[in-house]
Design brief:
The complex is a heterodimer. By secondary structure, chain A is an all-alpha fold. Chain A has one domain: MetI-like (MetI-like fold, Orthogonal Bundle), CATH 1.10.3720.10. Chain A contains eleven helices and no strands. Chain B is α/β, with parallel strands linked by helices. Classes of the chains: A mainly alpha, B alpha/beta. Chains A and B meet through helix 2, helix 5, helix 8, helix 10 and helix 11 of A and helix 1, helix 2, strand 2, helix 8 and helix 9 of B.
Chain lengths: 237, 285
C-alpha cells in the first residue's frame, strides 16, 4: 500500500514541478486520442445515422460488423494495422509505422465502430413518429437530419465519450503501431507499461493516475454539458 | 439559433481542437529515420536513453527504438522492418548471419547472467559453480523455476543450459511467464522461485526482491551484446546507410566510454562492460 501512496505523492510532485517529459506525454496522448476521436466522429456519426434510418440490402451485415467492432480487441487492431503499414506491407510506401499517424489510424479503427454503433442506437431510440411529423410539415432532408440530430444529441455525446474513453485507455494497439518511442510515440498507457517494466513503480502509478484524472476530466466536462442540456429540455410527461 | 451553434462549437472545441496541433510527422524526410530493433534490457536499463540522443545529435538521424525480445528483434530485421539490430543471443545471431539475412556482426558490450532464487535454496545450487549442474539440481528437486518463455536472449541462454543438461523442462514446477525480465522477476519473487536474469535488470529491481544471487561467474553465463546490420535484400526501403551509421556509432570509442560509465553513479557498478573490437573468446577473461 505504501507504494500507492508513494505513487500519488510522485504524481503530485511531477505535476507541481511541471515535469517536461510527463507533460509532453500527457499532451501527446490527448492529441492522438483527440484526433482519433474527431476522425471517428466524422466517419461514425453519419454511418450510424444512415444505419438507423435507411433500409438497404446488406444492412444487417454492416450492423453486425459494427457491433462486433465495438468490442474489437485493440491488440488485434494493432496487429493488422502493423501488417498493413510494414515496409513490406500494402501501405509500406507511406512509411507510417512507428509514427503518430499510425497510432491515430489504429485508434480510429477502434473508436469509429463504437461511435457508429452508439449513434445508431441513439437515432433508433427516437420516437419514429417524429420523423414522419417532420416530413409531414415539409422539412427538407438537411432540415430533417439537423432536427433529428438535435433530438439525439445527448446519447450521441455518450457515444463520443465512449469512443474517447476507449482509445485514450488502450495500450495494445498504441504499443504495436507506435513502438513507444521516447519523444515521438510514447503515450500515457505505453509509458506506464515501460516504467513498470523498468521497475519504476512510483512513476508508473503516477502516470496511471494522470491517465485516470485526464479521462475523468474529459468525461466530467462532457457529462456536464449533457446534464445541463437535459435540464434545459425537460422531458415531456 | 444562438444556443444551437454554441452547443456545436463546444463539441468542436472539445473533440477536434486538441487534435489540430498534433505533431504529425510533417518534416520527416525519408532516409532520416533509423529503425533500431533491440532487446528490452537495453531500454529498461536506461542505456539507450543516453546513447540514442547522442547519436541523433551527432548524425542528424532520428532513431525509432523498437524494444522487443531478442528473437522478435532479429525476426523484424530479417523481414526488413528494421535497419539495425542490437541484441544478445550469440548463437541465434550467428544463424541469421549464416543465412545472409544480417551482416557485419560486431560485439558491443557484455555483462553477465545470474541465477537467483529464494534464500532457503531448496535445490542447493549455492554449493555448485556450474550453471548446468545448477539447472540439473533445480530439475532434480522440482523446485519452482520461472522461465521467460518468449524467445528472448535470456530465454535462449536458459534453453541452452537445459539442452546441455539433457533435460526437457516441463511440469507444474516450470513456470513460463511470456513477459519481459522485470515482470518475470516479479513473478519469481512472488512465487519464491528460481530464475535466470541479466545483472542489469536485477540491479534495477534489487530493492523490491527477496531473491538473492545463488550462482554467478560461470563462463556460459556471459551476456554478450552485438550490433548487426541488415541485408538490403531483405525488403524494400531499408535505410542501409543509417543502420550502418548506428552500428558504427555503437562501437566507436566515445560511445564505448559512455557505456563503460553508465550506471556507476546509480548502482555503484557499471551495468555493461564495453568490448568493441574484441573476439568473442576473449570476452570475460
Amino acid at each position: 500500500m505504501g507504494l500507492v501512496w508513494d505513487g500519488i505523492e510522485h504524481a503530485f510532485r511531477l505535476f507541481l514541478a511541471g515535469d517536461a517529459e510527463v507533460l509532453g506525454i500527457t499532451l501527446f496522448s490527448l492529441q492522438v486520442s483527440g484526433a482519433a476521436t474527431g476522425l471517428s466522429l466524422v466517419v461514425g456519426i453519419p454511418l450510424g445515422m444512415v444505419l438507423a434510418m435507411k433500409r438497404f440490402p446488406g444492412r444487417s451485415l454492416v450492423v453486425s460488423l459494427i457491433n462486433t467492432g465495438m468490442g474489437f480487441p485493440p491488440v488485434v487492431v494493432g496487429l493488422f494495422v502493423t501488417i498493413f503499414l510494414w515496409r513490406s506491407g500494402p501501405l509500406g510506401f507511406m512509411e507510417l509505422l512507428y509514427t503518430p499517424s499510425a497510432m491515430i489510424i489504429a485508434q480510429v479503427v477502434i473508436a469509429f465502430p463504437i461511435v457508429a454503433g452508439l449513434t445508431m442506437a441513439a437515432f433508433q431510440s427516437l420516437n419514429p413518429h417524429l420523423r414522419l411529423q417532420l416530413l409531414g410539415i415539409g422539412a427538407s432532408t438537411p432540415q430533417l437530419l439537423w432536427l433529428l440530430g438535435k433530438e439525439a444529441r445527448l446519447p450521441v455525446l455518450a457515444a463520443i465519450m465512449a469512443g474517447f474513453g476507449g482509445v485514450i485507455s488502450e495500450v495494445g494497439a498504441s504499443m504495436m503501431v507506435g513502438g513507444n518511442i521516447r519523444g515521438q510515440t510514447r503515450v500515457l498507457t505505453t509509458a506506464t507499461v515501460l516504467e513498470t517494466g523498468k521497475g519504476n513503480f512510483e512513476l508508473a502509478i503516477a502516470l496511471g493516475l494522470i491517465l485516470l484524472v485526464l479521462s475523468f476530466a474529459v468525461n466530467f466536462l462532457l457529462t456536464y454539458i449533457q446534464q445541463r442540456e437535459q435540464l434545459r429540455w425537460p422531458k415531456p410527461s | 439559433m444562438q444556443k444551437r451553434s454554441s452547443f456545436a462549437i463546444r463539441l468542436l472545441l472539445l473533440v477536434v481542437l486538441p487534435a489540430i496541433p498534433a505533431n504529425l510527422p510533417a518534416g520527416e524526410a525519408a532516409g532520416k529515420n533509423v529503425i533500431l530493433s533491440t532487446t528490452t534490457s537495453t531500454q529498461d536499463s536506461g542505456l539507450l536513453d543516453v546513447l540514442v540522443p547522442l547519436f541523433e545529435k551527432k548524425t542528424g538521424y532520428s532513431v525509432k527504438t523498437i524494444s522487443v525480445g531478442t528473437g522478435q528483434a532479429l525476426a523484424l530485421a530479417a523481414k526488413g522492418e528494421a535497419d539495425v539490430v542490437l541484441v544478445h543471443a550469440p548463437s541465434l545471431e550467428k544463424k541469421y548471419v549464416a543465412d545472409g539475412k544480417l551482416l557485419n556482426r560486431r560485439l558491443v558490450m557484455y555483462n553477465d547472467f545470474i541465477i537467483i532464487g529464494p534464500t532457503t535454496d531448496p535445490a542447493k545450487i549455492k554449493s555448485t559453480r556450474s550453471s548446468v549442474e545448477a539447472v540439473k539440481r533445480i530439475y532434480g528437486s522440482r523446485s519452482r523455476f520461472v522461465s521467460r518463455g518468449d524467445n528472448s536472449g535470456t530465454h535462449n541462454l536458459e534453453k541452452s543450459l537445459w539442452k546441455q543438461a539433457a533435460i526437457e523442462p516441463r511440469g507444474a514446477w516450470y513456470i513460463e511467464s511470456g513477459q519481459g525480465m522485470g515482470a518475470t522477476l516479479g513473478i519469481a519473487n512472488e512465487r519464491s522461485a528460481y530464475t535466470i536474469t541479466d545483472r542489469a535488470t536485477y540491479l534495477a529491481y534489487k530493492k523490491r526482491l527477496a531473491l538473492v544471487i545463488l550462482l554467478e561467474g560461470d563462463k556460459p553465463l556471459l551476456n554478450i551484446y552485438s550490433v548487426l546490420e541488415v541485408n538490403p535484400a531483405n525488403g524494400p526501403r531499408i535505410n542501409v546507410v543509417g543502420g550502418k551509421a548506428f552500428a558504427d556509432f555503437m562501437v566507436a570509442p566515445d560511445s564505448q566510454a559512455v557505456i563503460k560509465n553508465f550506471g556507476v553513479e546509480k548502482y555503484g557498478q557499471p551495468l555493461f562492460i564495453p568490448v568493441a573490437g574484441m573476439r568473442e573468446e576473449q570476452v570475460g577473461e
